[in-house]
Amino acid sequence: MSSLRGRGLSVWVLGEKVQEFADHPVITPSINAMAETYRLAETDPELATVHSKLTGSRVHRFAHVCESVEDVVAQSRMQRRLGQLTGTCFQRCVGMDAINAGYTTTFRIDSAHGTAYHDRFKEFIAHVQSYNLVVGGAMTDPKGDRSRGPSAQDDPDMFVRIVDRRDGGIVLRGAKTHQTGSLNAHWLVVMPGQRLSDKDAAYAVSAAVPVDDPKLTYVLGRQSCDTRSLEGDVDVGNARYGGQEVTIVFDDVWIPDSRVFMDGEYEFAADLVERFTAYHRRSYVCKAGVGDVLVGAAAEIAAMNGVDRASHVKDKLVESTFLNETIFGTGFAASMAAKPTPAGNYEPDTLLANVCKHHVTKLPYEIARLAQDLAGGLVATMPSDADFENDQVGPVLKKYLKAAPGVHPDDRRRILRLVENMTMGRNAVGYLAESMHGAGSPAAQRVVINKLAQFAEKRAFARRLAGCSACPQSPSSTWTSPPPPPPRN
Amino acid sequence: MSSLRGRGLSVWVLGEKVQEFADHPVITPSINAMAETYRLAETDPELATVHSKLTGSRVHRFAHVCESVEDVVAQSRMQRRLGQLTGTCFQRCVGMDAINAGYTTTFRIDSAHGTAYHDRFKEFIAHVQSYNLVVGGAMTDPKGDRSRGPSAQDDPDMFVRIVDRRDGGIVLRGAKTHQTGSLNAHWLVVMPGQRLSDKDAAYAVSAAVPVDDPKLTYVLGRQSCDTRSLEGDVDVGNARYGGQEVTIVFDDVWIPDSRVFMDGEYEFAADLVERFTAYHRRSYVCKAGVGDVLVGAAAEIAAMNGVDRASHVKDKLVESTFLNETIFGTGFAASMAAKPTPAGNYEPDTLLANVCKHHVTKLPYEIARLAQDLAGGLVATMPSDADFENDQVGPVLKKYLKAAPGVHPDDRRRILRLVENMTMGRNAVGYLAESMHGAGSPAAQRVVINKLAQFAEKRAFARRLAGCSACPQSPSSTWTSPPPPPPRN
Amino acid sequence: MSSLRGRGLSVWVLGEKVQEFADHPVITPSINAMAETYRLAETDPELATVHSKLTGSRVHRFAHVCESVEDVVAQSRMQRRLGQLTGTCFQRCVGMDAINAGYTTTFRIDSAHGTAYHDRFKEFIAHVQSYNLVVGGAMTDPKGDRSRGPSAQDDPDMFVRIVDRRDGGIVLRGAKTHQTGSLNAHWLVVMPGQRLSDKDAAYAVSAAVPVDDPKLTYVLGRQSCDTRSLEGDVDVGNARYGGQEVTIVFDDVWIPDSRVFMDGEYEFAADLVERFTAYHRRSYVCKAGVGDVLVGAAAEIAAMNGVDRASHVKDKLVESTFLNETIFGTGFAASMAAKPTPAGNYEPDTLLANVCKHHVTKLPYEIARLAQDLAGGLVATMPSDADFENDQVGPVLKKYLKAAPGVHPDDRRRILRLVENMTMGRNAVGYLAESMHGAGSPAAQRVVINKLAQFAEKRAFARRLAGCSACPQSPSSTWTSPPPPPPRN
Amino acid sequence: MSSLRGRGLSVWVLGEKVQEFADHPVITPSINAMAETYRLAETDPELATVHSKLTGSRVHRFAHVCESVEDVVAQSRMQRRLGQLTGTCFQRCVGMDAINAGYTTTFRIDSAHGTAYHDRFKEFIAHVQSYNLVVGGAMTDPKGDRSRGPSAQDDPDMFVRIVDRRDGGIVLRGAKTHQTGSLNAHWLVVMPGQRLSDKDAAYAVSAAVPVDDPKLTYVLGRQSCDTRSLEGDVDVGNARYGGQEVTIVFDDVWIPDSRVFMDGEYEFAADLVERFTAYHRRSYVCKAGVGDVLVGAAAEIAAMNGVDRASHVKDKLVESTFLNETIFGTGFAASMAAKPTPAGNYEPDTLLANVCKHHVTKLPYEIARLAQDLAGGLVATMPSDADFENDQVGPVLKKYLKAAPGVHPDDRRRILRLVENMTMGRNAVGYLAESMHGAGSPAAQRVVINKLAQFAEKRAFARRLAGCSACPQSPSSTWTSPPPPPPRN
């Protein structure tokens, strides 16, 4: 990832400003995870690349705007695969989902206002595709006092906003939090994070900013067990791959108008957010891939412990699989039910996408619980790698770590640490906490499910069958779900 | 449904042999439910009919062998729709799934044995399509002592078997239980219900039998509150529609060889069962349609009670919707991931089909529980319709049944009875007990999930990330899920 | 139960006024269930009787005011036992809990207002004890438009109220719904059902009314499968025992002041309701006894089916037991943590009582689901008893109902019908719907749990451990839970 | 805790042998947690001390053998309290439960074999009481190949065993794993960990060993985020308190016969284990106290975020409380239902103790999930304390951490770190993984529940009500649950 080096970013890690973040051992695993997205394009080009109408050539799927149902579905497949390969967050979905959502919203703004955002945005995407770049989507603001909107805060900087206009561009101030993998990106697409009112016009802004803009400051978020990466590989559990979350401070960042995709059209903020989450909540099928790893680790440690034939062990592995496939099935269904937007690109089914994400806020926690169950108490009481490798105490520790015949104690340690990593350690951030809050917390999905539940139609079904007065005999001609099959050419 | 009358079937209902079952008030609702499948073909031909290669003309979708992914998906959409329209089991899925499964298995038997079952079966299907007939699938045997297989039973009749061969045909004896809607069918397709061994060759039989064969006896199963249909309409809850389950006794039924589709090829019994359940476990998306009715009834009664703005009420409706869409989403995904079989027809994804059905064994019970919660105690304590309509006591009862302004007490009664009907009454059989056991009980799905979980691949993912010895760097080239996108022409 | 006969009550059943309700076959099972409470006093006097300070003699425990922690605990034990013996609601808890709650509230009203309710109430209880009578507690009003309180309704009768005062007494008008077992009682204790304001003074009334007051009209509530009691015994499932719910209309019932226990002291309405529910929500440990029956039925049918050694079967029985004991354990804990009231009697722990009842709104549904799972599909498809007993078709049905060796088909039928009875039939009302709504619906418990959760203390614990500013070093001297051990003499 | 210093233990921490473990910053928090048990004896002597018959004086409750139901109950209250005060495992329950269980088992062995273990054991306890010492219970062996028993292992040391007898004592070899707080103890009571056969006589050994025996080696287990204790206090989340788990190697430890409490009586190994777990599974009510902290942290962070009035937030706090009180209620019930043993001490109800522990393997995970939900994404993405305290980047980070008015950003950080600590960090070991495996993994509780479920009695209840043949009319005179009220003096 040579393109990440030498950019002189202002990056803070554990209280220190680092010269070259890409070489920081706490950050390297996150780069490795993202790098797998590039590697997959080489090892499985059918899955990770696609022909783009925008550039007329084959591009990385993460940089692609969906042109068909198949494109939407292939994203789900690619995401599960990368979850399997990294066991963590590979950080490239936000940007993919941001360019897909922005593609439609810019089209709609232009239709309403006669602006020219859509062409600008297509140019930006073409640039990204041509150079095979990584885009980060910068949506979540610090929010300050949550009972008040952006323009009603005591401190107006609690949401990113336009503070100035000069030299054919705008100037942004504020911060974005929970920014996944931003250091590993080349561009950030700034977006508003919620519905805005007419008083919030200065906050209705979307624009592309180069990650190495000197007015940006990055502070790495702590993750559970983050400093184990400084110690060695075994105790990390998954030494090669990890996630990355940063806080980004925008200290009056200037952006030329040519990279601005929304500027004051506050009434389209909700449109952008809703389209983004339709894609992004379904993107959490990646957790089915990460779940494949954890279910595999649970199956492996059960076998190593010599108890894999116990009926309760088998049952817990079946349960884990059932839950994991529920994530996949609902996300896959959302993709399969994709429909074209006014702009011509394809968008997943919003209801099913929210059903998928809502499961993701619960089921990984249960799969993690079952994995800790199958791992046994050692997952939380095992001595350190340094103890095992110590000349004096190591040999006796290894003697007592022996379990089922043929299992090397070191392999057993490694699988135990992997379970720890995914259920309590560094990648528990990606598998659990991010599953909870990424793309919106559980309450956000319930709001959408409530909105799309078609209760009026359902009540009509019930009234008709109960024989209530004033009942339609053929209710619900407007029933929209189940979605129609994908259109064919 | 004139075609159901005058057939002289030997039908027992509540201890009496009935002359014309179609006129029996306990049975009529089940006929109405099935009749909706015909009505839908008129009101929404796009959904309920399809062009068939076998006959070259447009046929009912329930009689169709899937020729594409779209065909498989359209089944799911049609099933949900009919669930919405009937609020119960419309009894036509078993036959549909049986002809789809048999289509493939007969092809495979012929390939292995040089037999001619496939052409016979296609002829049978063409007949069914041409006359728009209803097929019942007769699979479940009484089973006797479940610790022993068919040929090891004390009484060899515990599974349907060939007891004789004469006049160019075979003679079947035994019984089939839990037969959904058989009285409303024109043909029964007999199938074995489980994996068989070489000792069970006489039990490895599949054949088509006309429902009005004089050697068949039918006994109607009781359903909760079945006799309310004899009383009037209000207290039934859903007076128009109901399900139907019968026990069928085969008292030496002769079948010509031309309608026999398996005869002794015991090693293909499991193939037939597994293919059938791949279709049928996903067919339970119909319960998402029935769930739409119950969620609608819950929303309606909450509004009638005047509490629909309470946050806990809204939350329970959202939860019900979330659960209901989980059924739909996983079943829909199974259909969307359909793949062609060796015979050229299309078959749903088996793993996702089992995930769907496994949810169906749980989630309707929770939706029913939430509906009882929202209904309030009246769902179980309300006086009878006869009391409400009585001149003396009726008026005061109606006075005290008033709730939110503008709600007619009679409508409120009807919705309450509908909730009772679906959670404790007659259609609780279809919505709950059948959801539990139809297409296989929960344990059966867990066996399949275990088989398809690809634990070896998952363990390899985990070993690679943990850095265990002897780990592949690119595991799981054989990983088969997520399924590839449907092939395009 | 001769004392129930010849009272000339005005009782409506299924649209007809019955002369002697006690002989009505739909009602008889509910009388049998209540009669078990008397029988238990003979067979296990230690459990069902107790020495009363009020009368100085041994009285029925259901008529007793708790004088110690042991008394409160013994109620729980008696309730579970009667659940085991009847498999349904035995209808005597409401009255028991009403006299215990009223004992305290009358004392408190007198303390505040100088009234004489407490002595009157003690006299009433002594009368009940002396004659070993059954008391029904009449609390729930029809409520009308639930967004408005009693005095704000369009129709002022939507809550029972005082409409007149004459002849040294008060006159009550209105109705009470969901009245459990009132026909089998001798006295009704009228109580308000919710917190009242000063405008609701006419509704703040508690008084004892004889069940055979001529101004009372009773209408029996329908229950699932209620009319099976008219058919015979097998298909009922539990032919001997059932519950009873009635609507009672108060058509200007005159009550002498000597039997009035609250008259306008609206500010004590909530006190009475809260004390009553503290007892009554914990009284639902009876469902652990009913659950013992259903878990037993599930274990029995699994054995009859010959699958009781399957690991998933054993696991489901363990799970059912675990859930059932959770109901018992939390209710038992509430009783064990009883504390004396200002009036000197003993009252259960309110928080734990609500935890118990809240489990009761969920866990019986899951136990019922598991029982249907273990029962197999026959629970919903088995022919009627009349079919099995029919000379023509019966023998072949019995042939095919054979299962594990040594199991009589008739016994198997009976157990299957018992499972139907408890999960979909008549006693599903008692085991499920009543578990949901009796003593308050789930939302009501959550209100109480919220109120008693001591969040301020919990937040102080957290702030102290996190090292927040302004934190007490020894927080929560006011922490009241876990309750202290019961005081000893 | 001066008594812990200067003992010259051989302790390994993170690969290094430490001179004075008590000063090691990773270990100090565990000492603080244990020290709270001493402090409580001073601040609340009623709760944490008790009069002992053995010594005739007031002793620490953790060193006490229960002489009454009140004693058993007071343990539960003390445990919850200490959970509230430390937010983690205070490590003193194992020893308490070991001396209570051993008290009975030694009595029973003596009765059977004429040995003198009981008096020895009482002397040992009196010593512990007199000097107010901490006892660790050493039960869990490495177990090696779990498909084989102790004497059938390839390496006979996989379970602690007697390898020699000399100088009036025995010599032990082997290891004990998952040893909670052993470094902070003065004595270890070695016990077998499972049912043994006659071939395992050498493994049937119980004895007291001083923690500072020179033949013992201790290796500290790693915990998630353990090294944050080396960094400072804020990011630890709970800087003062933590748990401690060690592996102990017995390298031929000599023990005089006077401290041996079982020596070859293999048939009593199960008795000791079962009695120990009856106490210890109920001792997990401590997690209700830890849960009080986490629920408090969730309530606090919700308030700090300014969203505490949202209905879903309140509902999640109610749900957390409901679950937390379920742990407490079932454990408290187990203690309340305590019964005397043959030795005269009091023992909790085994069934309810297992119900409690089984909930503990699940509910803390759900409470933790809800806490992460309420905490918001910052719980996993917040920069380090060093960043916040850095002169350059700290001020801007603090600016953007502001939330609800009046909340200091530093306090908000601390609460977020506490939630991280308890759900993913160091005390997630105590609150989650230890809840899963301590006192036996979930499968172990299910074995006990199955054994005590009284299925035969339950089946008799069902058969009687269903009217099956050969049914007792008054079943279950042997029904033992609900337990009788505690005996009174």
UniProtKB/TrEMBL annotation, chains A, B, C, D:
SUPFAM superfamilies: Acyl-CoA dehydrogenase C-terminal domain-like (SSF47203), Acyl-CoA dehydrogenase NM domain-like (SSF56645). Residues 2-262 form the HpaB/PvcC/4-BUDH N-terminal domain. GO terms for molecular function: oxidoreductase activity, acting on the CH-CH group of donors. The keyword Flavoprotein applies. Signal peptide: none annotated. Pfam families: HpaB, HpaB_N. This is 4-hydroxybutyryl-CoA dehydratase.
